[in-house]
Design brief:
Blueprint (H helix, E strand, L loop, with lengths): L3 E3 L6 H4 L5 E2 L14 E10 L3 E2 L5 E10 L5 E10 L1 H9 L5 E5 L2 E4 L3 H4 L4 E6 L5 E5 L16 E16 L5 E8 L5 E8 L14 E12 L2 E15 L20 H17 L17 E15 L2 E7 L18 E2 L2 H6 L5 E6 L3 H6 L5 E12 L8 E6 L8 E5 L4 H12 L13 H7 L7 H5 L7 E3 L10 H5 L5 E13 L7 E4 L6 E3 L3 H11 L14 E7 L7 E7 L12 E5 L3 H10 L2 E7 L4 E3 L7 E3 L2 E3 L15 H4 L8 H7 L6 E11 L4 E8 L15 H14 L12 E11 L4 E8 L1 E3 L5
Pfam family, one: POT1_C_insert
Main location: nucleus
Keywords: Chromosome, DNA-binding, Nucleus, Telomere
Length: about 775
């Protein structure tokens, strides 16, 4: 029997359990006794991360504290859950939940002396016929005008603004939503998850959401919501009279009858208090320079270059203007060629950039999409045919730019499908007789990529982010002026160093202004190997603020590995929020843990405490990023100082905060490059010293992310196209500042680029 979530109050559950089951007290549990028709009840006081046994079986461990007849907490017992039931329990169980288990096997506990719990433990699994019931709590919902800093609440709200899920600067997807409710308050929520399907399924302004366990923080005098451990959401169509059907990826959730009333009341309130957009724009209604949302059907897609991606879509109507055909090779285009030919006059090309590319690549042909804030850009053609319209989904998320996939059950999709089915796709041409050359010609209206780059030759491919009051200054004038000063220039990039872009990434210490190379993985592996020689100290395991798990590897070279899971509120958080420390792990094992858990810190045992490894190794791993400390400026402190963060109400485990309590001066990943700039009056070398603003790429992620590496290379190929004459190079608008460099032997004036970023359409 799978895990069952009873949608009742704690007072009602006994009347709904199977009649043959009788309650058993924990202190009556013994081995070799018949507990077939018994159940035990208690409160979940501790849970461990879901893991897998050596044979691949899922395993989940919780600690249950029993209740006596007066509701007081008494004995506690370990419950070991196996298989599919373990996976289900890990998803639904929360600290403090009331938990009922039947069909269990009672076994002697080998850890009773160490953990002080019941002398037996319970083993349960679906294969053994076990049954688990989790009693649904009675949720209290907080109006938006009563939110307080530092609390974790449940709430309802109407969507006033949202950004569809997009790839954040880390490894997660992010969605932003602004909510309002009848209390006339507003709440902006920033939501993260490694899987975009687990973020709220919001399709339009006016949708209604229910958030459980959202953390509230005050920032600049405004309340904001962020995801916390156990965050869950339901989304409902906000249209008055629409069916009350929740959208969610979770298979387990509670939705009481009285909540139907809440949804209906919010719909009525929103209808007269929220400015809800009318029907989405059709292609037949598009006008030049318009930004619009489009509900459409995906019929083709193709890679264009490293920084952009093509989507071919239609909505059953025809754009009244000539539209741009993006040049791609036929071999790169996905989709049914016959259908693409039939829809040639109805489909349009949408070029998507930057953070939208990864999602666009994952879309399946035939999906129904809602693309938000498409730019209908009017462009003049080089030939006599006149102007045409180009469709761009620019990078970034301003104005809610993004792509959402709609299910076929969505009302707008049903309407769109009916329209598409009514369109006559009969084509007078015999597609069977068309040659491959004729078909290939369908997919490219340009002979090469020349026309794509042409647009960048006169317009600047960089954007100034400040100091707009400055006028352009010739390079000749700058080189004849004294330093320090700031200038605005318009120049071309003749060459740059290093040509191997990965060599541009360095580690920088803001305290001593030193630069160093990023250590390679082999050096880290050797340090881990040397540290594994130090035997773990058993006295440093299972302390007041972390739980420890130790095992010995098999084979000739046996190693002892210890993982310490940092607790919060007396329990180990969910995997994505857990910081762990590891002793004796290999490089492969450490990376595997870093991809699954929030943070990983490699440590070794001393007599009194755990300590960090040599600072030649990263002191912290988070996702694909290794964080290093400055050897010269750091003064490492004992690992036990981390307990101060664990004791916070909502520990964030940010690298800067971890570094501070451990006495580490954090090194920053930066790009260091030399640009040779020319403008017809002179040439000068300007240094780029930047962490992520110029390329809009985090320097900390470029070394481990092939997509970002390709994006950076494509960006440089546009800024400085290889093999092209100086006249064909694009213009760059930049701010540069001059500064003096002196030593005992000479004085030199140097130049640095600042407050400049690559244009959105380039990246």
């Amino acid at each position: 029997m799978p895990v069952q979530l009873l949608k009742i109050t704690k007072e009602q559950f006994e009347t709904l359990l199977p009649s043959h089951l009788q309650k058993e007290d924990l202190h009556h549990l013994q081995e070799d006794c018949d507990h077939t028709n018994k159940y035990i009840q208690g409160i979940v006081v501790l849970s461990y991360p879901l893991t897998k046994l050596r044979d691949g079986t899922d395993f989940f461990k919780i600690v249950l504290q029993g209740l006596d007849d007066w509701g007081s907490r008494v004995d506690s017992i370990n419950i070991l859950i196996y298989g599919k039931m373990a996976e289900d329990c890990a998803k639904v169980l929360r600290h403090g939940d009331t938990f009922i288990v039947a069909g269990f096997k009672v076994m002697k506990s080998p850890t009773a002396r160490e953990d002080g719990r019941h002398g037996c433990h319970l083993e349960v699994s679906e294969e053994a016929g076990s049954a688990i019931y989790s009693v649904a709590p009675k949720y209290v919902y907080t109006p938006l005008n009563q939110l307080k800093d530092g609390t974790t609440v449940n709430l309802y709200g109407v969507v006033k603004f949202f950004k569809p899920p997009y790839v954040s600067k880390g490894t997660d997807y992010c969605s932003v939503v602004t909510l309002v409710d009848p209390s006339n308050a507003k709440l902006m929520c920033t939501l993260f998850n490694g899987n975009p399907d687990f973020l709220p399924k919001i399709y339009k302004v006016g949708d209604i959401v229910r958030f459980h366990r959202i953390k509230i923080r005050e920032y600049n005098g405004q309340m904001q919501g962020v995801t916390s451990a156990g965050f869950a959401s339901l989304t409902f169509d906000g249209t008055v009279g629409a069916p009350v059907v929740p959208r969610t990826s979770s298979k387990m959730y509670t939705f009481m009858d009285e909540e139907h009333k809440t949804i209906k009341e919010l719909r009525v309130w929103a209808a007269s208090n929220i400015s809800i957009p009318g029907p989405a724009t059709k292609l037949s209604g598009v006008q030049p320079m318009l930004f619009f949302d489009l509900t459409c059907h995906l019929v083709g897609k193709a890679k264009v270059d490293g920084s952009s991606f093509l989507l071919k879509v239609w909505d059953g109507t025809k754009c009244p203007y000539p539209t741009w055909r993006v040049p791609v090779e036929a071999k790169d285009l996905e989709g049914q060629k016959v259908l693409l030919r039939q829809l040639r006059d109805l489909m349009v090309d949408i070029l998507v950039y930057d953070n939208h590319v990864q999602l666009a690549k994952s879309l399946k042909i035939g999906s129904f999409l809602r693309i938000y804030s498409i730019h209908a850009k009017q462009a003049s053609a080089d030939n006599e045919d006149g102007s045409h319209i180009e469709f761009h989904l620019h990078g970034g998320t301003c104005y809610g730019r993004g792509i959402g996939v709609l299910p076929e059950s969505n009302p707008d999709v049903k309407e769109l499908k009916a329209l598409l089915e009514s369109v006559d796709l009969a084509d007078s041409q015999n597609m069977e007789s068309m040659s491959s050359e004729e078909l290939d010609d369908t997919f490219s209206d340009f002979t090469d990529f020349e026309s794509y780059l042409q647009r960048y030759r006169q317009l600047s491919v960089t954007v100034l982010t400040d100091h707009q009051y400055l006028n352009d200054t010739e390079l000749r004038t700058i080189m004849n002026s004294t330093a320090p000063q700031q200038y605005r220039i318009r120049a071309k990039l003749r060459t740059y160093k290093p040509q191997k872009l990965h060599q541009s990434v360095k580690l920088y210490c803001s305290k001593c202004n030193s630069l160093q190379e990023v250590p390679d993985g082999d050096e880290f592996g050797f340090i881990l190997q040397r540290s594994a020689v130090t035997a773990p100290n058993p006295e440093l395991q299972d302390t007041s603020w972390y739980d420890s798990v130790m095992w010995t590897t098999q084979g000739q070279k046996q190693r002892t590995i210890v993982i310490h899971f940092v607790r919060h509120d007396e329990m180990v958080p969910q995997v994505e929020n857990t910081l762990l420390m590891i002793e004796g792990g290999t490089l492969k094992e450490v990376w595997k843990l870093a991809k699954r858990f929030k943070c990983v810190i490699p440590v070794r045992s001393t007599e009194d405490d755990l300590e960090l490894l040599d600072l030649s190794a990263p002191f912290l791993l988070q996702g694909n990023v290794k964080y290093y400390g400055c050897k010269q400026c750091s003064a490492p402190k004992p690992i036990r100082n981390l307990s101060s963060i664990a004791a916070e109400q909502h520990p964030s485990w940010e690298p800067a905060e971890i570094a501070q309590v451990l006495g580490i001066v954090l090194l920053q990943y930066v790009f260091i490059m030399k640009f040779t700039l020319v403008d017809g009056t002179g040439a000068l070398n300007a240094y780029l010293f930047d962490d992520e603003k110029f390329f809009q790429i985090p320097a900390s992620e470029i070394l481990t992310n092939s997509f970002l590496q390709e994006k950076m290379q494509m960006t440089m190929n546009i800024l400085c196209p290889p093999g092209r004459k100086l006249a064909d190079l694009p213009w760059l608008e930049c701010f540069i500042k001059s500064y003096n460099v002196r030593d005992a032997m000479k004085h030199q004036v140097c130049y640095q680029i600042f407050d400049t970023t690559v244009a959105e359409d380039v990246v």
